[in-house]
UniProtKB/TrEMBL annotation:
Organism, scientific name: Cellulomonas pakistanensis
Chief location category: membrane
Subcellular location: Membrane
Signal peptide: none
Transmembrane segments: 30-52, 72-92, 104-122, 128-148, 155-179
GO cellular component, one term: membrane
InterPro entries membership: TspO/MBR-related_sf (IPR038330), TspO_MBR (IPR004307)
Keyword Acyltransferase found: no
Region (Disordered): 1-24
Its membrane topology: Multi-pass membrane protein
Family: Belongs to the TspO/BZRP family.
Keywords (A to Z) from UniProt: Membrane, Transmembrane, Transmembrane helix
PANTHER family per record: PERIPHERAL-TYPE BENZODIAZEPINE RECEPTOR, TRANSLOCATOR PROTEIN
Protein name, entry field: Tryptophan-rich sensory protein
Length: 180
């Protein structure tokens, strides 16, 4: 059996049997999903620790843009986004394995920038440096989305809400910097 699309090789009978019996790569991939969820949870937890003193301190008294949401919105939004991000990365890994290396490295870069932003912005109160980091995050995130799209277009769309939220967060960061 051959595939018309070289990026998607034909499924062999052995692979179909392994998938059906729960012994194939997809079945063995659950630990990777758990690992990605834990990695994203670590970034979220680190961000929460880094932001607590800032949110209750300088940020509470700072002049904010009119479009700033109440603080309680951030936790639920980021929780959903981190879960969807992990699932998207897992789907790319599961479907493409080693062929997804570049896409997953880009995912790691954007996640590292995501992790760096909170302690710089909230912890160190460095609004200008925070803006530089979040702009770099946007570039890395767009590169990640493009790389995911080249592999599996519909999975790339899972990162759309995350990109929208980061763009929104950028306007908040820039607004706070301008008002400071």
């Amino acid at each position: 059996m051959t595939s018309a699309n070289p990026a998607q090789p034909a499924t062999s009978p052995a692979r179909r049997d392994a998938a059906r019996t729960g012994t194939g790569p997809a079945a063995r991939g659950w630990p990777v999903l758990v690992g990605l969820l834990l990695l994203n949870a670590a970034v979220a937890f680190g961000g929460s620790l880094a932001s607590t003193s800032g949110v209750d301190g300088w940020y509470a008294d700072a002049a904010k843009p009119a479009w700033t949401p109440p603080n309680w919105v951030f936790g639920p939004v980021w929780t959903v986004l981190y879960v969807v991000m992990a699932v998207a990365a897992w789907l790319i890994w599961r479907r493409h394995g080693r062929a997804a290396t570049t896409a997953l490295v880009l995912y790691g870069v954007q996640l590292a920038l995501n992790a760096a932003w909170t302690p710089v912005f909230f912890g160190a109160e460095q609004l200008g440096l925070g803006l530089a980091i979040i702009l770099a995050l946007e570039v890395a995130l767009v590169a990640t989305i493009v790389a995911f799209h080249r592999l599996t277009p519909w999975v790339a769309w899972l990162l759309g809400p995350y990109l929208a939220w980061v763009l929104y967060a950028t306007t908040l960061n820039a607004g706070l910097a301008a008002l400071a």
